[in-house]
Amino acid sequence: MDERVKAARLSIISNSLLVFVKLMAGIVTGSVSIISEAIHSSIDLVAALIAYFSVRESQKPPDEMHRYGHGKIENISGTIEGMLIFVAAIWIIYEAVSKLMHGGHITSLGWGLLVMGGSAAVNWVVSDKLFKVADTTDSVALRADALHLRTDVYTMLGVFAGLVLIQLTGQMWVDSIAAILVSMFIFKEAWHLSKEAVMPLLDVSLPPEEEAVIMNIINEHASNFVEFHKLRSRKAGSQRHIDLHLVVPPGTHVEDVNYLVNHIGEDIEARFPQTQVLMHVEPCDKGCDQCPEGEQCRN
């Protein structure tokens, strides 16, 4: 089984467990901040299910309907996850403000502290695993899922701190304020995640540093061509797509051109796995008298 699929399954299992535990703890303690964390984890569970589907489907090879593959499914997954997090944050604020206005009562703080501390530890371990797999496979969906869980760690620590303050001060309003602060952090997470997921859907170019590496790789073969231009790049999930025009000396044999194109493509893919390189080869038409036909031509 693919490593990405295994990691996505792990996320589903851990989120399912945390939703149940947090919900029970929130009901027992009456803490809106714990219930808000249960809501957040339920959204993370939906996100984990979407991530599982997307990483499984994105592996499929190109077909008659999807000539460029299925990589953008991961970007769609990340966009949906971002929208779900926005909804969750709004709901948490609504619940927190409602309890702040009408009051509430929290009991069994010890259970709440235990659940928040244990949940933070579980999410840290799982998110660390997801981040490692995401970095290895360059999976947008898994990186989004890992970011959710890592954010959960920080928000749960905020809830934990709020419960400690209630234990020390006896002020119930601290719980609602903690929940609102948690939602603000979630809003920030949702914005960055949505931006990262949507940009490839708009065929935004690869980061400048990646394009610089690609150009350096091409220039390593500069002795075999005249120049290259019209370099374009984009990304779909973990798949990169690059196309460019490669100018070769007039009279270059087709077998030599084929070898050069394949060699450049292999070098780029060695540096960036799952990269498709398309090159339009054209003969030099500058009419350089200093360059005999079939030899390197430069102006």
UniProtKB/TrEMBL annotation:
It is a multi-pass membrane protein. GO terms for molecular function: cadmium ion transmembrane transporter activity; ferrous iron transmembrane transporter activity; zinc efflux antiporter activity. Coiled coil: none annotated. Its main location: membrane. NCBIfam families: CDF (TIGR01297). Keywords: Membrane, Transmembrane, Transmembrane helix, Transport. InterPro entries: Cation_efflux (IPR002524), Cation_efflux_CTD (IPR027470), Cation_efflux_CTD_sf (IPR036837), Cation_efflux_TM (IPR058533), Cation_efflux_TMD_sf (IPR027469), CDF_Transporter (IPR050291). One of its GO terms (biological process) is intracellular zinc ion homeostasis. Residues 10-201 form the Cation efflux protein transmembrane domain. This is Cation diffusion facilitator family transporter. The keyword Membrane applies. One of its GO terms (cellular component) is plasma membrane. Gene3D superfamilies: Cation efflux protein transmembrane domain (1.20.1510.10), Cation efflux protein, cytoplasmic domain (3.30.70.1350). It is found in: Membrane. It comes from the Bacteria. Belongs to the cation diffusion facilitator (CDF) transporter (TC 2.A.4) family. The chain crosses the membrane at residues 12-32, 38-55, 76-94, 106-126, 147-166. Pfam families: Cation_efflux (PF01545), ZT_dimer (PF16916). It comes from Metallumcola ferriviriculae. Residues 206-284 form the Cation efflux protein cytoplasmic domain.
